[in-house]
From TrEMBL:
This is DUF58 domain-containing protein. It comes from the Bacteria. Residues 397-407 have a biased composition (Basic and acidic residues). Residues 377-425 are annotated as: Disordered. PANTHER family: SLR1927 PROTEIN (PTHR34351:SF1), SLR1927 PROTEIN-RELATED (PTHR34351). It comes from Brachybacterium conglomeratum.
Length: 449
């Protein structure tokens, strides 16, 4: 994507010193009639002229363009980015200077980094936090061979990368413990996808299999009719995400709650549920219908499911935990005709304080509430660091940090397993941000009364 570009050409510190020395030597030669001083000044003038010509030539053809290949990736994943020159820069042909491209990235995408200047510069950026992250501007930095002049061309293109919540796999035991799956799931019946056909008559459309024409209906109506499947009765579920602004709520808990919400949404969809996710104010974050491509063979249904799933993950990626605790929490319009309800919130001593969960659940007979606290101490913000080198396969440091973080989470899970109790009509599971949904729903121990 092309953006607004601004160019700055200035002498470097070395160039200023050479320029001052040149003027001083020339003045000294005029005053003292010392010929070597004049000759040295002339030599410095020549060096300055060569450097100026070199920077002007090296700056020709620099017309960068950046595009994001993967605009949305799960947290912990890598987004591919392509940065290339639309024209062939002279600096890549004639070695009249040195150049790099500096990307002024936010910390969520790895921080500021440099790319060796070339015609094409593919690289990856690691996404460490959920939400939308602006890539920020990038600058093409060029210096002449003597390091006397500095050319900076900065481009702002407004590109963004979204960190999506991580969707984990739920085991069959975890799905059954919450009522998502059982031995007789209505949603397990193959569902007609877009373009599927079955026993109900509908007008014939181009592309329908002629073997599925409903001849009796066609004779009765005088128009070709095709058999259309009757969709089975769907079931609905509601997922309540407690987005109340609470003192002491840490980022790791927010990330775990949103990730669990995405995992529950995916599991419900695969088991044939219609799902709504609402926040603490009762406002709908996202809604999904029954999966049209699961388990049926419909390709169009599968594509529709994928688009709906992506839209839901993008909506969850933008969730903020900033709802007012005293105004608008738990409004009646959040309740519906749900058969299953799952609540996710922070555990800061009194889970779901101020929320009337029963209003969200409606008539649901299966109600599960999950409350999490922080498993690890909050990290101190890092001091600004110098620009690092990034490249197409950059990521060793990121991988090592990820492995270390996984070991810390495993140790936290071993020290404090989840606990199960009751919260009114809800089954309450209390755990930490280190626990997976399977840990929370299948390994929780009963709390003593």
């Amino acid at each position: 994507m092309r953006g607004r570009a601004r160019t700055i050409l200035r002498p470097t510190g070395r160039g200023v010193v050479v320029l001052v020395a040149c003027a001083a030597l020339w003045l000294l030669g005029d005053l003292t009639r010392i010929e070597p001083a004049r000759q040295l000044a002339a030599g410095l003038v020549l060096v300055l002229a060569v450097g100026a010509i070199g920077i002007l030539v090296a700056g020709r053809g620099i017309s960068p363009r950046r595009r994001v290949v993967d605009d949305a990736v799960p947290v912990g994943g890598s987004a591919r980015v392509m940065l290339e020159m639309q024209d062939r820069p002279w600096i890549t042909v004639v070695p009249l200077g040195r150049g790099v491209v500096r990307e002024h990235l936010p910390e969520e995408l790895g921080g500021q980094g440099d790319l060796p200047l070339a015609r094409r510069m593919p690289h990856v950026l690691h996404v460490s936090r959920r939400g939308g992250h602006a890539l920020g501007p990038y600058s093409v930095l060029v210096r002449d061979v003597f390091g006397l002049f500095h050319l900076r061309r900065t481009v702002e293109d407004g590109l963004r990368i979204t960190g999506l919540p991580v969707v984990a796999e739920m085991s069959t035991a975890a799905e059954r413990s919450t009522g998502i799956a059982d031995d007789a799931v209505a949603g397990a019946v193959p569902v007609a996808g877009v373009g599927e056909i079955g026993p109900i008559a509908r007008p014939y459309a181009a592309g329908d299999d002629i073997r599925r024409i409903h001849w009796r209906a066609s004779a009765r109506t005088g128009t070709l009719m095709t058999r259309e499947d009757e969709p089975t009765a769907g079931r609905s579920a509601v997922v309540v995400l407690d987005t109340t602004r609470r003192d002491g709520l840490e980022g790791q808990v927010e990330e775990a709650l949103v990730s669990h919400a995405a995992t529950v949404l995916d599991s419900l969809g695969r088991n044939g549920w219609e799902v709504r996710i609402v926040d603490a104010s009762g406002d709908e974050i996202t809604r999904t219908q029954r999966r049209r491509g699961v388990p049926g063979p419909s390709l169009l249904g599968g594509e529709a499911d994928a688009l709906e799933r992506r839209a839901s993950l993008l909506a969850l990626a933008e969730v903020d935990f900033d709802d007012d605790e005293q105004h608008g929490v738990g409004r009646d319009h959040a309740a519906g005709h749900a058969e299953l309800a799952i609540a996710l919130g922070a555990d800061l001593g009194e889970p779901f304080a101020g929320l009337e969960l029963d209003r969200f659940a409606g008539r649901a007979t299966r109600r599960t509430a999950i409350a999490l606290d922080a498993a690890l101490p909050e990290e101190e913000p890092e001091t600004p660091r110098r620009a690092r080198r990034i490249g197409p396969a950059d990521g060793d440091d990121f991988g090592h940090a990820h492995e270390k973080h996984a070991e810390q989470l495993a140790a936290a899970r071993a020290q404090r397993p989840p606990r199960r109790s009751r919260l009114g009509t809800w089954a309450l599971v209390r755990g930490s941000s280190a626990d997976t949904l399977d840990d929370l729903l299948t390994t929780a121990v009963e709390e003593p009364r």
